């Protein structure tokens, strides 16, 4: 199924909703409330008595929605012509493979790569065996490795936006929104050690800057 970007909706893919009234919905509300306190280091911590997998699942869905919206605002600037390869600056280039439909990594444009990536993430989030939304349904043994792969790939969208489209972000006056979202994302993956340091290298300087402001 393919979804066209609509300027009015400002999201790249349909938003993934957590069912209202569910425990995960309560966790999301808790996350939003603690985020409002302004202390991001505290906001990302596992709430007392909660299941780690469930906390990571809720936040992964939230980051997907945030990146979906952020990328949605700049899709008109990210084209086959402007971004013929998926990169984060001159030193980092990403080729797409999902292990099932595309087994061998393929070089493709940034919009194509991000479309593949967001569609793939959406499929994982919609899979009830991977991301169970019902109370009492256990998370699979491979959940953590799937969540890590999702977050590693979502990071690449942030990296691409920062390197190739930050001018457009500033023009749209979205930089505070992007920086807050990315800072939240980074503090979260650092708290639970979810992305390898090498993968974060393209934005290492920015990550250090965001972290030092919070010490």
From TrEMBL:
Keywords: Kinase, Metal-binding, Transferase, Zinc. Zn(2+) binds at residues 78, 83, 160, 165. One of its GO terms (molecular function) is kinase activity. It holds the Pfam family Mob1_phocein. It comes from the Eukaryota. This is MOB kinase activator 1A isoform X2. It comes from Phascolarctos cinereus.
């Amino acid at each position: 199924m393919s979804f066209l970007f609509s300027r009015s909706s400002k999201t790249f893919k349909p938003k993934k909703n957590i069912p209202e009234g569910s425990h995960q919905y309560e966790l999301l509300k808790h996350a939003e409330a603690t985020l409002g306190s302004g202390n991001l280091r505290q906001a990302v911590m596992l709430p007392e008595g909660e299941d780690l997998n469930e906390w990571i699942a809720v936040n992964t869905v939230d980051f997907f929605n945030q990146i979906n919206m952020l990328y949605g605002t700049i899709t008109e600037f990210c084209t086959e012509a402007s971004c013929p390869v998926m990169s984060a600056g001159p030193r980092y280039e990403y080729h797409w493979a999902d292990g099932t439909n595309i087994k061998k990594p393929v070089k493709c444009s940034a919009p194509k790569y991000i479309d593949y990536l967001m569609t793939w993430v959406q499929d994982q989030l919609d899979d009830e065996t991977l991301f169970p939304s019902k109370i009492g349904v256990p998370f699979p043994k491979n959940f953590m490795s799937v969540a890590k792969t999702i977050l590693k790939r979502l990071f690449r969208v942030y990296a691409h936006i920062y390197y190739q489209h930050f001018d457009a972000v500033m023009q749209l006056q979205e930089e505070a929104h992007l920086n807050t979202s990315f800072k939240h994302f980074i503090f979260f993956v650092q708290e639970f050690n979810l992305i390898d340091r090498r993968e974060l290298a393209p934005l290492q300087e920015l990550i250090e800057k965001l972290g030092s402001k919070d010490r």
